[in-house]
Amino acid sequence: MPTFTASDGTRLAHRTHGDGTPVVCIPGGPADSRYLGDLGGLSAHHRLIVADLRGTGRSEVPDDTSSYRCDRLVDDVEALREHLGLPRMDLLGHSAGANVVVQYAARYPTRVGRLALITPSTRAVGIPITGEMRRELAGRRSDEPWFPAAFAALEAITRGEDADWEAVDPFFHGRWDAGAREHHATARPTNAEAVALFGAEGAFAPESTRAALAGCGIPVLLLAGEFDLNSPPAAVAAFAELFPDATFVQQPGAGHYPWVDDADRFAATVADFLA
Fold it and tell me: What is the mean pLDDT of residues 224-232?
C-alpha cells in the first residue's frame, strides 16, 4: 500500500483501484477505508485513490491525537494532493468524510475540480438532523421482519437512553441480507479515540464554511439514499442548496451505503457526474 508523510511527520497510507482520471476518496467513520471497496465498480471509470485517515487502516497513529479533529484532517488531504502531484483533484467524501472534503473545498477551492458528497454528514455546515426525521424514515421500513427490535432501539437512542446500538444496523442498508451484514462489519470504526476527537471543539465552523461554499463555483454532486437514517434525504437536499452549482440525487431503495445496495446505479450516477 502506498504511503506518504503528513506535515507533522505521520506516515499515512492510501489504496488505489482502477485506472483513468484520479478521484481522491475520503472515508467516513473515521474507519478503515477498505469498507469503500471500489465503490460499486466506479473504478471501471476512474482511478480511485482511497485515503486511510490517520489512526485508521494502515496509517500511523499520530503523536498528537488532537490532530484527529476534522478541520485538521484537511491538512492531510492537502499533503496527499501534493504527494500525488495533482494541481487540481476531484474529491469524493462519504458520510463523515464529507465534512473533511467540504472544509478542504472551502479552504482550497482552486485545487478542487469536482466534488462528490455521498450520503454526507452535515455537521460541517450546521444543518440539523432531527429525531423526527429519522423516525419518519424508519417508519417506511415497518414491513421488514427486523423492524420491531430496530425501531425500539432507535426510539431509545433518540431519547438518550441505553440501547442496543447494533439493533439499528439494518436501517443503514436498503436491504438487510448476508451481503449487507458482512459489509456493515467492515465499516465499523475501530479507533475509538479518533472517532471521539473527530468532532472536538473547534472542528467545525459552519458559518464561515457556508460562506466559503456559497462563493465557490465547484460542481458538486450530493447523493442521498432513500432510506438513509444517518443522512436523511431532506438534510442532504438542504445541503445542496448551499452550493451555486449543485446536483442533488436520491438513489431509490438505498441506505447509507448506496454502492452496496445498487452498485450499477450508483457507479453510473457518480461516473456521469465526474465525466
Answer: 96
Say which amino acid occupies 230. Answer: N
Which backbone phi and psi does 127 adopt, to 5 degrees? -85, 120
Q: What pLDDT digit, counting tens, does each position of 138-159 carry?
A: 999 999 999 999 999 999 988 8
Name the nearest CA neighbour of 120 among 243, 259, 22, 232: 232
Q: What share of the chain is helix, strand, coil (3-state, %, to 5)?
A: 45, 15, 40
Q: What is the set of domains in the chain, with CATH numbers?
A: 3-126+191-274 (3.40.50.1820)
Omega before 30 cis (within 30°)?
yes
Q: 120: which 3 cell numbers?
A: 454526507
Q: How far apart are the first and last CA of the chain?
A: 27
Q: Give, as one character, the DSSP assignment of residue 109.
A: G
Max Cα–Cα distance, the chain, nearest Å? 52
The tens digit of pLDDT for each residue in 68-77 reads: 999 999 999 9
What pTM, to 2 d.p., does this model score? 0.96
Helix ranges restricted to H, 23-146: 70-84, 97-107, 131-139
Tell me what pLDDT residue 109 has.
96
**One-character DSSP codes across 31-50:** --GGGGTTGGGGGGTSEEEE
Phi/psi at 248 (nearest 5 deg)?
-105, 130
The lowest-confidence range among 6-15, 180-189, 228-237 is 180-189
